[in-house]
Amino acid sequence: MSAAISVPISGRARRPGWLLAIGLLVLAALLLVLGTDVGSRGFEDMWRSRNDPVATQILWDIRVPRTLGAWLSGALLGLAGAIAQGLFRNPLADPYLLGSASGAALGLAIALALIGASPFASAWVLRMGFTGAAFAGAVVGVLLTLVLAQGVQHTMRLLLAGVIVGVVLGAARDLVTLAAPETLQGLQAFMLGSTGYVGWGACAIMGAVLVPGLVVAWATGRGLDALALGESTAASLGLPLGAMRVALVAVLALATGAAVAQTGLIAFVGLASPHLVRSAARTTHGTLVFLSALMGGVLLMAADVLARWLIAPQELPVGVLTAVLGGSYLLWLMYRRSGVARRAP
Amino acid sequence: MTTPQVALEARAVRAELGRTPILHGIDLRLPAGRWSSVVGPNGAGKSTLLRVLAGLLPHGGEVLLHDRPLNALAARLRARQLSWLGQNEGAGDDLTVYDVAMLGRLPHQAWLAPPDAADRAAVERALRQTQAWDWRERPLGQLSGGERQRVLLARALAVEAEVLLMDEPLANLDPPHQADWLALVRELVRSGNTVVSVLHEVTLALQADEMVIMDTGRIVHQGPCGDAATHRALREVFHGRLNVASLEGQWVALPH
């Protein structure tokens, strides 16, 4: 092309992702210290009481795993959000889209209803645990979505199947709670989200899902970049789209299932984390998945500290806090974008 | 006179979208080192044909790339030989212009391997050819429709494939950049590349070496753009509402 119409490089040059990564890691470390210091009496310096065996036990058996668990759960949701938005090529895609959240809620509702129903059922539930039931429900929800969508090859069909499974399993959960109203209280804690029950075991499970999930998502990052230009373009570049989709849906399902099973339904973290990263740094999907996980971890950790501190010695449900903060953020984002659109020539 | 080598060949190609048959037994031979433009009324099956030729759509019959069945080629090998630029490619608004162009190098890169000097050189060449080099740090979402189209064209050029298939590559381009695109295609053809384009703008399509005219999923004519038979076929396929005339040594199509 000969006629040069030169446009200077934009003033909004790419801000390096590593700078954001360092910032988020430092923030996470600070929040970890803060999180271990927040208790039923507000802030208290737990690290100075390390000679007190009770304080040490509270610190290492409750607060550290809980705060770390909040980071891990948020990181899983942030990772899942980045994958969902890349895979479905939709900035409003949510990690819960594949039916994992409704499946987990149904699994938990059934487990709660079975307690006391018969000695065999009670023993079965106790062996599996409530988090196990929630995880099994999440897996069943995702599998149902995949069956209904006849695989992972058609993005729109997958999205639609996820919505349908979400509605149907939600209705099934309502039926269970109608039949066994005593499940409502236990289910409410799950629906509102809580990091209160996270121990070292839960941290290990979430960590074991997060690390390989990040590796797989990073390895398919260029594929997600190509997919952003359209499925046909990605296919024309010789990418193994089928295998890529299978791997990413597996990570999405496992990450969401693990997070939901351990901390309940945490709203907006998965949706907002990738947006926050994109607004702070220019990234490709290879770096977005990492940064989104770091951002999700920091968001949930911050929400958890706030939830424990705001009305101490009472606790706010962390899911309610993330919903309020996340909703406000999305409103602000909409306002800012419409403002930019109005100012554009 | 020697018969030109055939780059792409379709044999009895049939294709459906959903359950609707779109292509009905297409036989086509596209010469190597030439520019062929595919034209026809809306719904004639032009884009579908291009997607079939690119190996992007399941189809009946057979497509051959340099006498080898396209389906028998490994995906990456096919991607290195055939570059495709589609209509209404997706969003990718957050990717920078440079990142988008670099995606064109994926067929040449080993899985997870970082871009090498050859990749960077190819991307720079492609971005300079489409005059998008100066915006390489800008996100795609900040560009106008025409600027964006030039970046997507650079992505297709960065593949450095021998055969380029382009579906409405001039969408959103202003006249000076349409002229630039024509010059670029001629340069590619001079360098031995084969270009196949679907164009709604018949006057621009008439600048090609060869024209393929389609109607209702069939090829009704194939011949040089300057032939009277081609002009006659054009008039017929557009129900007589198109005249082809010569203006300053170029063929122009005038709708009426």
Query: So what's the overall shape of chain A?
Result: globular
Intertermini distance of chain A: 27 Å
- CATH fold description of chain B: Rossmann fold
Main sheet record of chain B: 6 strands, mixed
Sequence of strands across the biggest β-sheet of chain A:
1-2
Measured by DSSP, the beta-strand proportion of chain B falls in 25-35%
Strand order of the largest sheet of chain B: 6-7-8-3-9-10
Word description of this protein:
The complex is a heterodimer of chains A (345) and B (256). With 345 residues, chain A is mostly helical. Chain A has a single domain (17-343), classed as ABC transporter involved in vitamin B12 uptake, BtuC (Orthogonal Bundle). Chain A contains 14 helices and two strands, in the order αββααααααααααααα. In chain A, strands 1-2 form a two-stranded antiparallel sheet. The radius of gyration of chain A is 21 Å and the shape is globular. The two termini of chain A are 27 Å apart. Chain B is built from eight helices and twelve strands. In chain B, the strands form three sheets. A six-stranded mixed β-sheet of chain B has the order 6-7-8-3-9-10, sandwiched between helices. In chain B, strands 2-1-4-5 form a four-stranded antiparallel β-sheet, covered by helices on one side. In chain B, strands 11-12 form a two-stranded antiparallel ribbon. The mean pLDDT of chain B is 92. The A-B interface holds A 1-10, 12-14, 89, 219, 222, 225-233, 235-240, 278, 282-284 and B 51, 54-56, 74-80, 82-84, 86, 88-92, 94-96, 99-100, 103-104, 106-107, 111-112, 129-131, 134-139, 142, 147, 150, 152, 155, 159, 176-177, 179-181, 183-184.
